[in-house]
Amino acid sequence: MISVEGLTAFARALDALASERLVAPALEVAAERLVQGVRSVLSHPPGSEHATPWLETGALRDSISARIGPDGAVVGSTSMVAVDQEQGTKTVPPRPFLAPVAMREAADLVTGFAEDLARTIGEAR
Description:
By secondary structure, the chain is mostly helical. About 60% of the residues lie in helices and about 10% in strands. β1 and β2 form a beta hairpin.
């Protein structure tokens, strides 16, 4: 005999598998698009007018990455320079580059995510 608890656990396992197989690939693509968008704004040569940080060594740009988890993706930087640039310091005005890119790209990211998810579901049939 199969218990209700066993069926519930089985349904949860199937949901997790579907999420990993279907959602994760589309989420990875969307997160990488955002990473590339953020990196692209970090390309102003020193001395030029800029609303975002200058590209001096490339370390800040290279620190931008995504982490995919079971509940979503996080795009950010591992550099403390990112905090100083985002929020500013006593001597450096704020030059935010993460949130503005995310806001600008949001609609396209959602559309791309939905299209990638639909394609993945179609291929899974």
